[in-house]
Automatic annotation (TrEMBL):
Membrane-spanning ranges: 80-100, 142-159, 171-188, 194-211, 218-235, 241-258, 270-289
Gene Ontology BP annotations: proteolysis
Membrane-related topology note: Multi-pass membrane protein
One of the record's GO molecular function terms: peptidase activity
Family of the protein in this entry: Belongs to the peptidase S54 family.
InterPro entries, alphabetized: Peptidase_S54_rhomboid_dom, Rhomboid-like_sf, Rhomboid_protease_S54
Protein name, as recorded: Rhomboid family intramembrane serine protease
Residue ranges of every copy of the Peptidase S54 rhomboid domain listed in the record: 126-258
Species: Streptomyces ovatisporus
Keyword Protease: yes
Sorted UniProt keywords: Hydrolase, Membrane, Protease, Transmembrane, Transmembrane helix
The keyword Translocase is assigned to this record: no
Chief place where the protein resides: membrane
Amino acid sequence: MEGQRQSEPRVTHCYRHPDRETGISCVRCERPICPDCMIPASVGFQCPDCVKGGSGTGHPPSANRPRTIAGGVVAGDRRLVTKILLGINAAVFIGVLISGERLINDLVLFGQAVAEPYGPVEGVAQGQWYRLLSSVFLHQEIWHIAMNMLGLWFLGPPLEAALGRLRYTSLYLLSGLGGSALTFFVSSPGQASLGASGAIFGLFGATAVLMRRMNYDMRPILILLAINLVFTFTWEGISWQAHIGGLAVGALIAYAMVHAPRKRRALVQYGACAGMLLLIIAACVVRTLQLTS
């Protein structure tokens, strides 16, 4: 299939050494560079001119700082947001261990359910939209949080370095919301769902898009994704809706971020995020009307 075929790098000549062929381009200016001109960046390589321009003086501070392939500012700690997300998930899990079912009932995702026998009906359809996001940070079993956090630690830092902190955070949260929205839209209203799997699958999709953009070998990530999809549809108790929703949202947002034209980069990127958020809201409104009408 076309989406899984690894394209061959386009061979050109180094802009500083016209006699040398190369298939690598600077991640900032996208000019071809040979091995002697390659300077390692957070993702890929930069050319000497971009590195020199990023460290010079006489320009505004924002112009001095090197940029990622998506236009984000290169930060000192390229794992900071990933660490914060790990910490939030761990804190909520500790809260579950302490409070038990009470916290789970307050944060878990379900569309519409009776709280107790003959008790009040509650859920996303009753206006508890916070469950779409709170459930993304909620885990009940140790194996569940361990697997998700391992995926976050493996996939998160390279994406955080490539996209920048704000774009990476947007990608993660929208992927989680996308998984929750699809679960709410197609699942039984009383079916409970929890976990960061939707957001993690969003990182899978984003990693595949980024690797294709950089002309890296996509086979490792595609194999890993295929294995996880097999578990998604064969392991009982897994919400395939959250996985597929997160995967689709993560891939689409990442594509907009790394393929946005340089002159309108921020407009395209944040416009894509806003459009995806509106689509998620629209799906939840439609489902709410179905359940409450």
